[in-house]
Amino acid sequence: MIRVLVTDDEPLIRAGIRMILASADDIDVVAEAANGREAVELVRSQRIDVALLDIQMPVMDGLTALAELRRTAPEVRVLILTTFGERHNVLRALSEGSAGFLLKDSAPAELMRAVRAAAAGEAYLSPGATRHVVDSLASGGATHRAENARRRLEKLTDRERDVLALLGEGLSNADAGQRIHMSEATVKTYVSRILAKLECENRVQAALLARDAGLGT
């Protein structure tokens, strides 16, 4: 079972997240917190695999709590969950060591996917958050990055380039599959192959390469 901590200052939000995650056989919400300070204390006293942290909270906000958890409990995977999708929040969360960034208007299935990915040690960004990162980081030094990206993409097949272009748009595996008439499982296989060939740690790095190379634009 994946042991989850849900942190949000709104009781109804916490209840909604708990209800969604309770429908999964492999996820157990073992604790709730109303602010970042409570979350940090609960992690110290309980075994938590994945902590969901809202950003805007009293006493201690989610990003400050993230930094504290990365310092004191690096084994805990942290997902930032918020209604605020501003680029600086996404980038700061990633720089502080977040396992992912999920917007509160995400579908229930995406929430469960994110928790499972984080527990497995993978990075997870919602499609909307991916677009924020790509748009923000893909500016400045464009010419040099474009040449480097095009060289790296030369090792991909035409079909792999098609899939990579959709990653650059921030699409999920399911949405990408619908766009190019592939099953979600097949797209996932392609993504794994692409990451290996490009020597990227996650799909965000691959998306940045796609954007730098002008793929799909």
UniProtKB/TrEMBL annotation:
* Name of the protein in question: Response regulator
InterPro entries listed in its UniProt record:
CheY-like_superfamily, NreC/VraR/RcsB-like_REC, Sig_transdc_resp-reg_C-effctor, Sig_transdc_resp-reg_receiver, Tscrpt_reg_LuxR_C, WalR-like
Keyword set, alphabetical order: DNA-binding, Phosphoprotein, Transcription, Transcription regulation
Pinpoint the Response regulatory domain residues.
Answer: 3-119
Source species, domain of life: Bacteria
The HTH luxR-type domain sits at 149-214
Keyword Phosphoprotein included in the entry's annotation: yes
Could you confirm whether the keyword Phosphoprotein appears in this record? yes
Per the UniProt record, the lineage of the source organism begins with: Bacteria, Bacillati, Actinomycetota, Actinomycetes, Kitasatosporales
Residues that the record marks as modified (4-aspartylphosphate) are 54
Question: Which Pfam families does the UniProt record give?
Answer: GerE, Response_reg
* Matching SUPFAM superfamilies: C-terminal effector domain of the bipartite response regulators (SSF46894), CheY-like (SSF52172)
Q: Say which species the protein is native to.
A: Streptomyces mutomycini
